[in-house]
Amino acid sequence: MGNYFSIIIGIIYLIGVFIIPKWRAKKLNQNWKFFELLWFSICFIVYVIYLEVQLHTYYFLIPSTFLLLFLFCYFKEKRRLINGLVFNLFLIVGMTYLGSLLVRTMNPLLIVLAGITGIVLLLLLLIGLYALLAFLYWNAIVVLRKEGHSLANLLTLLLAIGLTAFLIFNYYSARILPQWASLLFGILPFIMFYFSIVFYNFLTISIIYQFNQPKYTQDYIIVLGSGLIDGKTVPPLLGKRIEKAMQFYKAQSDATLNPPKILMSGGKGDDEHIAESIAMKQYAIGKGIPEEAILVETNSKNTLENMRFSKEIMEQDFGGTDFRAIFTTNNFHLFRAGLFAKMANLNADGIGARTAFYFLPNAFLREFIAIVMMHKRRHLIMCSLIALMMILLALAEFFLVTHR
């Protein structure tokens, strides 16, 4: 019976794998990767529940509870950093559960998945940090060559140099310093470990937030501005944001014959000849968007003001507050922009425009630093507690050594 069910669920899964791309090809939004991932997850969960039922146990309810907790938190408010932590807790509990299920069933599929996972984890332990260093140096060279030598473009290089210095220091400090001094200098790796967890949670929710699927019922699409070339020309990065909004505009128009208005948001910088939103409007008109379908917000200087001032314009144009809106920006900036929308009391989620892969590591580091600064008091408290704990351990070790 077990083998028959495994074959049946495998056939059903494969049928879905081939049907989903063809099904999505008939839709205005042809993205099929999210639905393939969702289909695999559903089939796998059904299979795992079947294995549990065969054992007359119901331990699957434990990871299911964490999954339901994540879904509740996420759909209640997508724009929260804690959602990344909750999802990663679900992953940890889920992996632990699957490990116990493997021991209890010795199921061939679980053995294969465990083997693949084990190989990946082993490689990460053996060469993970060194592979990361090589990637960071390579990425830094590419970014500096293609994007210039500004401080914002040096983040991956600075991180790579910092990690290299840390590895060298960590290697020699254990051989040179006494135990109590090693504990004192252990403050740095513990703080690094803390921020790596924070970064991983941020990256997790940033990736999940990319899967937004807004309905074609929007009244407005806000396009968030960025700098102009020579103070007057829309750069490629900003052009991607505008084109993403235009894509949604045309898709909703085809689906409902009721397109949303596009609200270009961006003021005039000190080194710019015109407001960013004016240049963005001209760009969209040049791509075929009717002028009457475009609104402009010309006063904002940052993303928070983008959201606040755009909200005021939409309320005035709509004649109320019950409008529906989304915003577009580059995918690396999407989640932080969502946080700013929340701060502005604007009920809007975002859709992200694609960004060149080489630009993403540097961009996500920049976003992470900005989010850390948004919650700097919380992180200062955590770092202080780590430092205090290590200082107390170092003092205890020092006095134990001197009194022996």
UniProtKB/TrEMBL annotation:
It comes from the Bacteria. Pfam families: DUF218. The chain crosses the membrane at residues 6-23, 35-51, 57-75, 82-103, 109-138, 150-174, 180-203, 380-401. Gene3D superfamilies: HUPs (3.40.50.620). The keyword Transmembrane applies. InterPro entries: Cell_Envelope_Assoc (IPR051599), DUF218 (IPR003848), Rossmann-like_a/b/a_fold (IPR014729). One of its GO terms (biological process) is peptidoglycan metabolic process. The keyword Membrane applies. One of its GO terms (cellular component) is plasma membrane. Residues 219-368 form the DUF218 domain. Keywords: Membrane, Transmembrane, Transmembrane helix. Signal peptide: none annotated. This is DUF218 domain-containing protein. It comes from Enterococcus caccae ATCC BAA-1240.
